[in-house]
């Protein structure tokens, strides 16, 4: 890995998501979640006017591979992060942060008052990212998730206010 790439990969851009991204989104989801969503589920979500998202794309070598994405639903002045994921080999290189920054910037622009999300209490990378961005816990759902071995964990409900 190039030294600069550890700080921010130069050939990665953040773009608004389009319905064309549905297949790649389900591929990435399958790599990172024990209960992945299908192409059809992503297509259905993207067809909704209240749903938007961003993709991180690598432009190197003439390709435009999607490396990560975030999907958001907006309603009545609030927004919910539906899902966010980064390809395993690209995690820890700033893409998740950039994707969330894009959501926060759009939310500010649209005068959204608060953003909510749910996160597995055992998901330390995600919890750390959200806390750094100003999200705080406002609730929880015990025994909400099951991992691949059937172990249960709670969902934490988090909120970020936008002033
Ligand atoms: C959570 C996820 C989206 C974060 O994306 P990422 O690109 O890896 O994160 P970044 O490189 O932008 O890191 C941002 C912050 O997240 C935290 N973080 C990232 N990876 C971490 C790790 N392995 N351990 C602890 N904290 C971590 C850190 O606070 C980091 O800030 P820092 O670089 O200043 O230390 C990514 O790990 C992922 O796709 N995980 C699998 C899917 C998932 O769990 N999604 C969230 C469901 S709620």
Distinct small-molecule ligands in the complex: coenzyme A
Q: What proportion strand?
A: 35-45%
Shape: globular
Instruction: Tell me the name of the CATH class of the domain at 3-115.
Output: Alpha Beta
- Residue share in helices? 25-40%
- Mean pLDDT score, rounded? 91
Secondary-structure element series: HEHHEEEHEHEE
CATH topology of the domain at 3-115: Aminopeptidase
Walk me through the structure:
By secondary structure, the protein is an alpha+beta fold. It has a domain at 3-115: 3-Layer(aba) Sandwich (Aminopeptidase). The chain has five helices and seven strands, in the order αβααβββαβαββ. It has a seven-stranded mixed β-sheet, with helices on both faces. Helix 2 packs across helix 3 (39-46). The longest helix is centred in the middle third of the chain and has 15 residues, at 95-109. The relative contact order is 0.14. Bound molecules: coenzyme A. Coenzyme A (COA) is lined by residues 32, 84-86, 91-97, 119, 123-126, 128-129, 132.
Keywords:
163 residues, alpha+beta, Aminopeptidase, seven-stranded mixed beta sheet, 29% helix, disordered N terminus, binds coenzyme A, N-acetyltransferase activity, GNAT_dom, acyltransferase, Ribosomal-protein-alanine N-acetyltransferase, YpeA/RimI_acetyltransf
Set out the fold topology.
Blueprint: H1 3-7, E1 12-16, H2 22-32, H3 39-46, E2 51-58, E3 65-75, E4 78-86, H4 95-109, E5 114-120, H5 124-132, E6 136-146, E7 152-161
Parallel strand pairs: 4-5
Antiparallel strand pairs: 1-2, 2-3, 3-4, 5-7, 6-7
Helix pairs in contact: 2-3
The chain binds coenzyme A.
Residues 32, 84-86, 91-97, 119, 123-126, 128-129, 132 line the site of coenzyme A (COA).
Keywords: Acyltransferase, Cytoplasm, Transferase
Family: Belongs to the acetyltransferase family. RimI subfamily.
Domain N-acetyltransferase: 12-163
